Inverse folding.
């Protein structure tokens, strides 16, 4: 007979799943390690690519950490937290996503060893935080200064970002384009979004070009319009040049045929009036976010005015920035002072596609890199590499500080942190040392991915750092130790500071979890009673 007082107590609903203590910890660490392991082989110039196939069968071939993780549709909650590290890195800089994830995974792997030695997670967390703080201080002191005048270094940053990516073969041409793009938009307020990237399949990567203005993926609306407008005065309109408002249903009752004619005449008059307003403003180009009526197109063509319609809101904003024009949502406001200016507006035909180039803007605050290349897959990967390069150059110039790559910075940090650990006592020393070990994962992986023996190279590198060669890194092509700075492997300081802070944060957060309480998956909704069998 069951004792009344010994009945099991259900605190959670039945379909909740709960993991606690060591089991929860082990499980979370294992999941995080798997994520890091997945992207690990892509790190560095000799990293491999991944082929991702989505549920629709679309293929992406990439080397880019965040792209891989986003496409993987990861479900494990701790693994998702690691993916967030990559996303933060992507949002903040645009590059260094693999580095951040691999480092976070290694911090947890090292922590696992400490947990087995019965060191409490809070001690590990504290040690990791102290080590990260020390790392930031060391980074600040070893970084070198740069400015917009150091074009040579800026170019090296762009090349480092693209090494080992699809863009590698054309890195000379592409890095030149990136440098020119940055120089032309650079001022104190510039953002990486001021350099836009447009893709067009066809021709070769070398034919990619920098356009000092904007490329809009729309053609002129009427064949009678000119293909080229010089000294363009551009009206940016967020109003339709149409009479009918298709969003509102209106009913017009017509009782005799003459009324129909009146109605058409009136519509024509209204459209004519709209076009007259444009003419009066002296605009010779219209970029319209909404529609343009056929008849209005005809009137505009007759006046030699170039027009595009249904342009994306983001393109409109970029155009306003590039041409100095103002986006108007009322035609009555249109005046000459609101018009944007560009050297040329051209209807460009590439292959069997047409688009509009708005070029040679005076002092553009936005420019466009038009990427060309053999196939959609090639161009997409080049675009990702260019985004990394632009992100890196922007981060470097904004902060004005850079460090050398090829594992040199991580090695130098590891050395300094080992020294710092020696000054500590007790169990935190072990955690700080573990942090230093975790930093070695970057040079280690670079060597491994290049098919080198990491043990030899790392020992040689450590010896060089002990002799105060702070930029001693791995030459992945020869397997020797090199001065990464002299060899032009240069990265923004921000890549490293961000990777260390977000990887440490997530590792500490995962370590401190000792209980995972998960709700069961919602079942497919039940049919309301009486409805079953109807479908
Ligand atoms: P992430 O997503 O972290 O940017 P990458 O695949 O771009 O990953 O690899 C970046 C790493 O490759 C950095 O540690 C960087 O220093 C290193 N690296 C880049 N170019 C070279 C080079 N020429 N020689 C050695 N290491 C390099
Ligand atoms: Mg990179």
């Amino acid at each position: 007979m069951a004792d009344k007082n010994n009945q099991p107590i259900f605190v959670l609903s039945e379909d909740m799943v709960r993991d606690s203590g060591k089991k929860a910890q082990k499980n979370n660490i294992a999941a995080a390690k798997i994520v890091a392991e997945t992207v690990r082989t892509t790190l560095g110039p000799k990293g491999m690519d991944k082929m991702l196939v989505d549920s629709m069968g679309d293929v992406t071939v990439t080397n880019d950490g965040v792209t891989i993780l986003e496409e993987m549709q990861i479900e494990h909650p701790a693994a998702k937290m690691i993916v967030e590290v990559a996303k933060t890195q992507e949002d903040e800089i645009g590059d260094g996503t693999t580095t951040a994830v691999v480092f976070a995974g290694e911090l947890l792997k090292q922590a696992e060893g400490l947990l087995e030695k019965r060191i409490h997670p809070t001690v590990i967390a504290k040690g990791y935080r102290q080590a990260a703080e020390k790392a930031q201080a060391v980074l600040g002191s070893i970084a070198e200064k740069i400015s917009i005048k150091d074009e040579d270094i800026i170019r090296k940053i762009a090349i480092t970002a693209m090494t080992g990516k699809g863009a590698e073969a054309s890195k000379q041409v592409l890095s030149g384009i990136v440098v020119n793009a940055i120089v032309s938009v650079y001022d104190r307020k510039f953002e990486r979004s001021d350099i836009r990237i447009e893709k067009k399949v066809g021709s070769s990567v070398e034919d990619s070009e920098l356009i000092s203005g904007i490329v809009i993926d729309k053609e002129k609306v009427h064949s009678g319009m000119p293909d080229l407008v010089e000294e363009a005065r551009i009206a940016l309109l967020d109003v339709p040049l149409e009479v009918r408002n298709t969003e509102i249903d209106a009913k017009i009752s017509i009782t005799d045929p003459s009324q129909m004619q009146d109605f058409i005449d009136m519509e024509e008059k209204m459209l004519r009036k709209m076009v007259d307003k444009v003419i009066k403003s002296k605009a010779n180009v219209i970029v319209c976010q909404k529609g343009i009526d056929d008849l209005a197109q005809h009137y505009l063509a007759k006046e030699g005015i170039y027009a595009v319609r249904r342009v994306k809101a983001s393109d409109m904003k970029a155009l306003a920035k590039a041409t100095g024009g103002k986006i108007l949502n009322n035609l009555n406001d249109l005046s000459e002072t609101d018009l944007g200016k560009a050297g040329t507006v051209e209807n460009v035909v590439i292959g069997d596609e047409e688009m509009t180039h708005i070029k040679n803007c005076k002092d553009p605050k936005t420019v466009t890199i038009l990427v060309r290349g053999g196939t959609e897959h090639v161009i997409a990967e080049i675009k990702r590499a260019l985004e990394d390069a632009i992100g890196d150059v922007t981060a470097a110039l904004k902060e004005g500080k850079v460090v050398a790559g090829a594992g040199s910075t991580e090695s130098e940090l590891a050395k300094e942190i080992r020294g710092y650990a020696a000054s500590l006592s007790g169990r935190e020393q072990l955690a700080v040392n573990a942090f230093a070990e975790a930093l070695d994962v970057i040079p280690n992986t670079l060597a491994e991915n290049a098919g080198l023996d990491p043990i030899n190279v790392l020992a040689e590198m450590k010896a060089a750092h002990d002799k105060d060669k702070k930029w001693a890194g791995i030459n992945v092509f020869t397997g020797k130790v090199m001065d990464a700075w002299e060899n032009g492997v240069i990265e923004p300081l921000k890549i490293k500071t961000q990777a260390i802070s977000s990887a440490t944060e997530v590792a500490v957060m995962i370590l401190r979890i000792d209980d995972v309480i998960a709700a069961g998956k919602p079942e497919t909704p039940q049919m309301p009673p009486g409805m079953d069998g109807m479908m």
